[in-house]
Design brief:
By secondary structure, the protein is mainly alpha-helical. It folds into two domains: about 85-315, Up-down Bundle (Growth Hormone, Chain: A); about 320-520, Growth Hormone, Chain: A (Up-down Bundle). Helices cover about 70% and strands about 0% of the residues. It is built from 16 helices and no strands. It has helices at about 5-15, 35-40, 45-50, 70-75, 110-180, 190-210, 215-240, 245-270, 275-295, 330-350, 350-355, 370-400, 405-425, 425-455, 460-490, 495-520. The radius of gyration is 29 Å and the shape is globular. It starts with 5 loop residues before the first helix and ends with a helix. Keywords: Membrane, Transmembrane, Transmembrane helix. InterPro entries: MFS (IPR011701), MFS_trans_sf (IPR036259).
Length: about 525
């Protein structure tokens, strides 16, 4: 039994406690009494400190043309459903376990909310872009040129309008991509180009409805394409740089869904605006501006690049999308296949308005509303068959594991689709052309993207090779409209364009066969 009082217990505890060291209660000025700056400073004070702080060894962000994921984003934009789903060979990618898959190219780890905003923002941006461009390219602009120049004059005018637009966009992209790499602003290096491109594109789209000659339409269209090039350069670079590897497939799926829905809605919007094409063009301009606003406000804000180091710009930066050193024979054939396939697609899609309306002859045009409805139904059928082609392509790839076989099947189907309206230039023949063509074009695009990724001869330079692959598609579209201009200028009937569609795909098939022979020899 403990008879000690509480006071005695306290005194004993005091005697047993160790004696403090001399001067152990000394407070070091500026060290021990330093306040917690996170609590002591206001948000304005923290911003001022960050602005005035000196950062040693500032980071040099990679150029867009040096990032395979940027080129993959541009590569997948051409397909109405989706592109190749295999990883792009990037040595710094998380696919090769060289980087945390949850962070972006700059090392930032976005939150779940920010990832959701990326999905919604990129999907909505793709929707409004596809909506406006589908309505303008497939229905509204061809209708306007048809009214201004007649059947033959309008088709020829459409060729040079589209050709000048593609050429301006191509040249602008060559300059805008490296210039945006060297941009240093508090809102990032891509944001100013995206915002400026959206503004220019929207303003000139408003001016389209006020044009009363084909020359005026061509000039305004070319200027609009320059703004669109700046917008798309920044958009593709943002997807590649700001979306972590872990979420890139999901963000890409959302974006492709928005693209497909916008394509369908845009075509049908053109039908509804058949009697008021000028008002339709104005609404398309609003859609382009909406794409810019959503891309800027919904997608999380890009980080500042004020403190990022910039390397001097060289002439070689302008040529990175045009050539690569020592390309292999297999790579050349893949690019040529892409070029001729893109030319065939351009011939098949760009002139569908004139092909449908004047299938009875230049003096027997269909009713305007009936033409619009038929064009919209063909577009809807092509998109639906492209979705079916997505599943069939995956099934073939899983069964045979041979992308070249998938490519040759797609090319064969595309040639069949082009031959059908040559044999039967009727409503049924055009619907068959749209259905089989949509199915085949997706197979070709998917197979070509997979082959391009697999055929990169130097993995550490994958971005440069994929950039040239994308350039071959642009040049193919330019070739398509040049051929289309000659066809409509000198052909007696508009169905002759399908012969050239078949020839372009036949050339693509010859290049594809050459790639098979080259691969067999290795």
């Amino acid at each position: 039994m403990n008879d000690q009082s509480p006071q005695q217990n306290a005194n004993d505890a005091g005697r047993l406690a160790p004696r403090p060291f001399p001067n152990s209660n000394y407070i070091r000025p500026g060290i021990d009494d330093r306040p917690d700056l996170d609590k002591a400073l206001t948000d304005e004070d923290k911003a001022a400190v960050a602005r005035l702080a000196v950062r040693q060894k500032p980071k040099t962000p990679p150029a867009a043309a040096d990032q395979p994921e940027v080129q993959a984003a541009a590569m997948g934009a051409s397909s109405p459903v989706g592109g190749a789903d295999e990883p792009v060979p990037d040595l710094e990618s998380a696919f090769l376990d060289m980087r945390d898959p949850m962070v972006d190219a700059n090392g930032y780890r976005p939150t779940k909310t920010q990832v959701l905003r990326m999905k919604i923002g990129f999907a909505c941006t793709a929707f409004f872009l596809a909506f406006a461009l589908a309505a303008l390219n497939i229905t509204l602009v061809p209708q306007e040129l048809d009214a201004l120049g007649g059947p033959v004059g309008g088709a020829v005018a459409l060729s040079w309008v589209l050709g000048v637009g593609i050429l301006c966009s191509f040249v602008a992209t060559i300059f805008f991509l490296p210039l945006s790499d060297h941009t240093r602003t508090p809102v990032g290096r891509r944001t100013p180009w995206f915002a400026g491109g959206a503004l220019i594109c929207g303003l000139f789209a408003f001016a389209l409805g006020a044009c009363h000659t084909p020359v005026a339409v061509g000039i305004i269209w070319a200027l609009m394409q320059i703004g669109l090039a700046a917008m798309l350069c920044a958009l593709h670079a943002s997807i590649g740089e700001r979306v972590p590897d872990k979420f890139r497939d999901a963000v890409g799926t959302w974006r492709m869904v928005g693209l497909l829905i916008g394509l369908v809605f845009g075509i049908w919007f053109g039908v509804l605006m058949a009697d008021e094409p000028s008002a339709g063009m104005d609404l398309c301009a609003v859609a382009l501006l909406a794409a810019g606003v959503l891309g800027l406000l919904v997608v999380p804000r890009e980080s500042s690049t004020v403190y990022s180091r910039a390397k001097p710009m060289k002439t070689s930066d302008l040529l990175v999308t045009l050539r690569v050193g020592h390309p292999t024979a297999a790579w050349r054939t893949i690019c040529l296949t892409r070029l001729f396939a893109s030319a065939g697609v351009m011939l098949a899609v760009a002139y569908v308005w004139f092909v449908v309306r004047y299938r009875g002859g230049v003096n027997a045009g269909l009713d305007l509303r009936l033409t619009m409805t038929m064009v919209a139904l063909m577009g809807l059928l092509a998109c639906a068959m492209a979705l079916l082609g997505e599943g069939v392509t995956d099934l073939l790839r899983a069964s045979f594991d041979n992308d070249r076989l998938v490519l040759m099947i797609g090319i064969a189907l595309a040639i069949v689709a082009a031959v059908v309206p040559l044999v039967s230039y009727t409503t049924a023949g055009l619907y068959v052309f749209a259905g089989i063509g949509g199915f085949a074009i997706h197979m070709i695009d998917d197979a070509l993207q997979s082959l391009a990724v697999a055929s990169v001869p130097q993995v550490d330079r994958a971005a440069e090779y994929l950039a040239v692959f994308n350039t071959s598609a642009t040049l193919g579209r330019l070739l398509g409209v040049v051929v289309g201009g000659f066809v409509f200028a000198y052909a007696g009937v508009f169905s002759s364009v399908f012969l050239w569609v078949a020839l372009m795909f036949a050339f693509a098939g010859a290049c594809g066969a050459a790639s098979i022979v080259t691969a067999a020899k290795r």
